[in-house]
Structures are given as structure tokens and as C-alpha cells.
Design brief:
Helix content: over 70%
Largest sheet: none
Number of strands: 0
Order of helices and strands: HHHHHHHHH
Number of helices: 9
Number of domains: 1
Strand content: under 5%
Shape: globular
Structural class: mainly alpha
Distance between the termini: 49 Å
Radius of gyration: 18 Å
Length: 206
């Protein structure tokens, strides 16, 4: 499966930014992801351009800022529209119910497992009753392992074209990630289901 293509012009521009490159990359990451461009190829680009350490710092910061902005937009600017959308999506309602009951842990696992895409999940969580403080901490810690992994993968490639094609090295690493992610997915879905059932039962009893 091909990942979305990052333009050669953007890569060339970032390469000319010198020491300002990571900051410019962070701005591009925030804008692109808010417009629903997938985060993983951008994280790999950071690894390719800046190496594992600087790339991870830049991507982690940009990812958190993007997630927080999406959360705030959903909560304060698009609340009614998001609520109307969720009424037709039972899975979204179940997630919000679970987050309202056990916010930090559920958001952390949702981020860690990547059950839903990065930004759509951020918009969805803006509808929940989780506090900003808990959301920020759970999002940052939950995203960090995946961020470091994708940046590291990007640092291994020797050509820009490999960022949009799954080479042999990428396949081995992402295969291990898929197994780990599958285990976390099961744990997360189980927690969400149990939390939602418990809250529903409490409401019924009342």
C-alpha cells in the first residue's frame, strides 16, 4: 500500500532552511495534519531530513500542537457539527463515553494503538469531557513511541522515494509494529467496551 506522496518541492525547500528547518517542518506538519494529511509519512520525512533525535523532537512538538489545535477547534468552534456527526457513529459515542469515564488511560491507549487516524481522533476527543491537561499529557505520552519509531524509520532511508514506498527494512519494522499494535488494540477495545457498558448500566439503574 502506497503512502501519500510528499512533494519534492517541499522537501527541497525544507533542505534550504538550514537551522530553521525543524521549526519550518513543524509548521508544515501542523497545517498538513489539520487538513487530514497522514502524520506517519511526515514523521518519516523528519527522520530523513534531521536524524532520529532532532526529527523526534520536532515531530513530537508538532504532533502535540496539531492534536491540541484540532481538539480546541472541535470543542469550541465545531461542537454542534461534531455532535450531530457522532449520533450516526456508535463507535464514536462509545469512545467518548469511555473517555468521559476514564479519560487519561483511554486517550493514552487510543493514541498508542492508533485505532483511529491521528487528526480525526483529535477532533473526536474534543467532544468528550476530558480536561485539557489530561488530554495534552495522555496525547503526548501516547504518541511518543510511534513518533520515535516512524522518525527512526525515516532516518534509515537513503532516498526520498523510499518515504512513499515500503522497502524491505521498513517492512520488517512495521511488521513488528503491527503485532504490537494489534495487542494494544485488543486491550483498548476491551477497556472501551467495559467502560461503556458500566456507565450504561449505571444510567439504567438510576
Amino acid at each position: 500500500m502506497m503512502t501519500p506522496t510528499i512533494s519534492d518541492e517541499l522537501i527541497a525547500w525544507l533542505q534550504t532552511m538550514g537551522s530553521l528547518g525543524p521549526a519550518m517542518f513543524a509548521g508544515v506538519f501542523i497545517l498538513a495534519t489539520l487538513l487530514f494529511f497522514p502524520a506517519s509519512p511526515l514523521a518519516m520525512l523528519a527522520g530523513y531530513l534531521y536524524g532520529p533525535l532532532t526529527g523526534s523532537v520536532a515531530t513530537s512538538f508538532a504532533g502535540l500542537m496539531s492534536a491540541v489545535l484540532a481538539f480546541l477547534i472541535s470543542r469550541y468552534l465545531a461542537g454542534e457539527r461534531m455532535t450531530a456527526w457522532s449520533l450516526n457513529h456508535p463507535r464514536a459515542q462509545a469512545i467518548n463515553t469511555a473517555v468521559s469515564d476514564d479519560g487519561f488511560r483511554v486517550v493514552f491507549l487510543l493514541r498508542l494503538a492508533s485505532i483511529l487516524p491521528f487528526i480525526p481522533l483529535s477532533y473526536l476527543l474534543g467532544m468528550s469531557r476530558i480536561s485539557i491537561r489530561q488530554y495534552v499529557l495522555a496525547t503526548w505520552t501516547g504518541l511518543l513511541p510511534g513518533t520515535v519509531l516512524y522518525v527512526f524509520i525515516g532516518s534509515l532511508v537513503s532516498e526520498v522515494s523510499q518515504l512513499s514506498e515500503r522497502g524491505e527494512t521498513v517492512s520488517h519494522i512495521t511488521g513488528a509494529l503491527a503485532i504490537t499494535g494489534g495487542i494494544v488494540v485488543i486491550m483498548t477495545l476491551t477497556m472501551i467496551a467495559r467502560s461503556a457498558r458500566r456507565i450504561l448500566n449505571q444510567k439504567v439503574i438510576r
